Amino acid sequence: MTRRITWTLLVLTSVLLVLAVVPLAVSMTARERVAFRDSQRAATRVIAAAAEEHLSDRKPATAMRQELAAAARAGDCAAVYDASARLVASTPCAAAQGREAEELVEEVVSGHEPEPPENEGRLLTAEPAGEVRSPSGAVVLARSAAPLDARIAALWGWSAAIGAVGLAASVVLSVGLARWVGRPLSRLDASARRLGEGALDERAEVGGGPPEVRRLAATFNTMAARMEALVHGHRAVLAEVSHQLRTPLAALRLRLDVLAAGAEGDTAPELASAQEEILRLSRLVDGLLAVARAEQATPRPVAVRVDEVVAERVAAWAPVAEERGVRLTATHGPSLSAALGAGHLEQVLDNLIANAVEAVSEGGSVTLDHRSAKGLVRVRVRDDGPGMSAEAKAVAFRRFGNPEAKGTGLGLAIVHRLVTANGGTARLEDTPGGGLTVVLELPLGPQG
Question: Do the Cβ atoms of 63 and 47 come closer than 8 Å?
């Protein structure tokens, strides 16, 4: 954001400077040229007035020669011509003579007002001596354009300097403004990111930036404080519920065990059924607590080696699968890392393997594989069990959503929550030949 604000202000300032400085410099250049021409013509007219007294009034040429000498001292070259375009007098330099000067003289003595040319860095002007329509002669004055060029160059130099100073000031101001606005927003963004990663005690700095940004930071801190209170309160309730439910269930199970040890006749089967219901209720409570913990998961992603975790979980569940007569294998895949919360992939695979081993009958198989796909890590858990109906697959990721579940019906809900909390997706597909395949697509982490 700081860079965008800086560049926007710089471009805007540059455009404004160009639109303001360039036209002003062009206008002042034109004024300098006009002033230079007017000054040159005025000097020419002074010499022409003195020449008229000599050419028409037959007075001595003293005044005319004095004006020519003054022009020479000023660095100008001047020449006086009579009505026949013959040279009468001139300064020592010959710049006011030649073919161009003669053409100007011919036009002037014929009663015209020619446009003086610029030749080799010199400007020529021609003025009639006497009446314009019937002059008694003409005066040509050549003046170097170097002073004019120097003044124009200085004018453009000062304009460029003013533009550069304005642009430098704009850079300083735009960078300062961009940092004033951007830094608090960057800090607020970092605080929001850390809060989203689970740092519930994170608070934004309220002291800097525009009033709107300070109000936003204050609002963020209020929201973060309320969220922290809600989450901690929820966790406290879960802890209390866990304690309050598990303790009476354990005591009830213990009493049933004692009663079942001495039960006889028809009482023994009833007590055994009650024990199974207590065990099922205990598993249900544990499952609900696991779902609640998964729903509270705010992972801080770390690089997790998928191939190593898959191999580790297959090795851990192999004895359970072997006891049930199920073949549990993992295909050899590439070394890939996923960006996940610590321990989440293990928990996901444990739930999926447990469900698959439970669903597959003796002699069946469960296979895990993983590979890279479109910037993701794709993990599949396939079994050749009875599979799921389309209706069951549509609600399988909901808590207690699967009516065909043999257990609590919470395992896939935990899987879905953990995967989506890490920015991944989970879906169910039919295994070719029969069975169910769970497909996980996880964000790709940095590869070692």
Answer: no
